[in-house]
Amino acid sequence: MFGRHKSVKIKILLVSSFEPWSLGLSYIRAFKKLGYEPICFDMTEEYEKASQLTRNRYTNRLISPYAARIMNKKLLAVAKDCKPDLIFIHKGAYIYPETLKEIKANIRALLFIFNPDDPFNPNRGASSKFIRYSIPIYDIYFIWSKALIPKLDHAGAKRVEYLPFACDPELHYPVSLTEEDKKVYASDVVFVGNWDEERERWLSELEENNLAIWGADYWGKRCKNKFLKSCWKGRIAIGEEMSKIVQSSKINLNILRLQNKGSHNMRTFEIPACGGFVLHERSDEDLGFFEEGKEIECFGSVEELKDKIKFYLNNNNLRIKIAKAGYERCMRSGYLYVDRVKQILKLYEKLKGI
Predict the structure, then answer these.
(1) What CA–CA distances, in Å, run from 353 to 1, 12, 16, 349?
(2) Whole-angstrom Cα distance, residue 254 to residue 267?
(3) pTM above the 0.70 mark?
(4) Which 3 state secondary structure label does DSSP give 9?
(5) pLDDT tens per residue, range 182-207
(6) Residue 61 CA: distances (Å) to CA of 68, 94, 188, 222, 231
(7) Secondary structure class of 180 (helix, strand, coil)
(8) CA distance 32 to 38
(9) How far apart are the C-alpha atoms of 299 and 353, rounded to whole Å?
(10) What does R_g of the chain's alpha carbons equal in angstroms?
(11) Which residues contact 240 (CB under 8 A, 6 or more apart)?
(12) Separation CA 254–CA 268 (nearest Å)
């Protein structure tokens, strides 16, 4: 058993990235809440340690093979030294299939992965040949999209398990707003997230609205729409600042990337967990997590998006009621990262016969 009642203490090596907003940190906190102290290997840090040239997107392509080799050697050494029972990897960018095979040959550990992207996405930032070639090596391949399960099966995965995204109560939570907070962060409509062409396409239809955009500098560098550039606040927002933005804004938009269509993303849970009203691009999976019109609101076309923005800007009480119900659903329905870790540990125990 796991958590307070676990009878077998297992050693976990968590291989991820650990920036302040990262999935890795949320999983560390979740493991610790269940009584585990995972050993952490920071892929991004070890990769970038190999050469400062990895920080430049032009020189990174040239230096990448060298940096990846250094990172793989370090990962192999750490795994052999700590001899974990479970190695849990996030995405596995730059991890060679040969490294995984050597780990399995020398260490009696189960090898799990959760990929927060689509491993079959041809975009270099989303996947790589190393990620695709490694699919058959993992004991369990966790994925956030039900639509990707048959694709992973076809690619030779030993076992595929559906593992949705979640929220982290230490990162996503309601805050008390000051009058100054409201002046800085309030808007009628807000989008918190990074730029891509799909999101620009949707948001460019909202020029008649008081719109704010918080995200990385691609909004300044790649966005072609002048109105959207004028709405961009010039930086990303995480933690308490993101909570302040979500709560100060009347309508929080969640526009899915192309790879997430029909499914969900991190914001699906993070916005309700912050206490915000979410207007979510409609998807089958999202409607399995929240009830439309009661816990969230959804749109499927530009016309519906505009109509619902107008409707909810004029119906404050209903908007607040839906936001409250969405928050309560998040907290009671197993949508926290600690719930995802429980699922992972149950499957570990099942495979080990504990």
Answers:
(1) 11, 17, 27, 6
(2) 7
(3) yes
(4) coil
(5) 999 999 999 999 999 999 999 999 99
(6) 11, 12, 41, 20, 33
(7) helix
(8) 8
(9) 45
(10) 21
(11) 175
(12) 7
- Those residues whose C-beta lies under 8 Å from the C-beta of residue 233, and which sit 6 or more positions away, are 212, 213, 214
Burial of 324 (0-12, 13-18, 19+ CB in 10 A): middle
Tokens coding 299 = 């749109």
Residues present in the chain in total: 354
b vs e for 190-219, b when ≥16 Cβ sit within 10 Å of the residue's Cβ? bbbbebbebbbebbeebeebebbbbbeeeb
Looking from the CA of 35 toward its CB, the CA atoms found within 13 Å total 12
Distance CA 179, CA 191 (A): 21
The C-alpha atoms of residue 5 and residue 225 are separated, in whole angstroms, by 55
Residue 62 pLDDT: 57
Buried b / exposed e over 152-171, threshold 16 CB at 10 Å, is: beebebeebbebbbbbbbeb
Per residue in 251-309, pLDDT (tens digit) is 999 999 999 999 999 999 999 999 999 999 999 999 999 999 999 999 999 999 999 99
Mean pLDDT of 221-244: 96
Asked if residues 198 and 215 have their Cβ atoms less than 8 Å apart, the reply is no
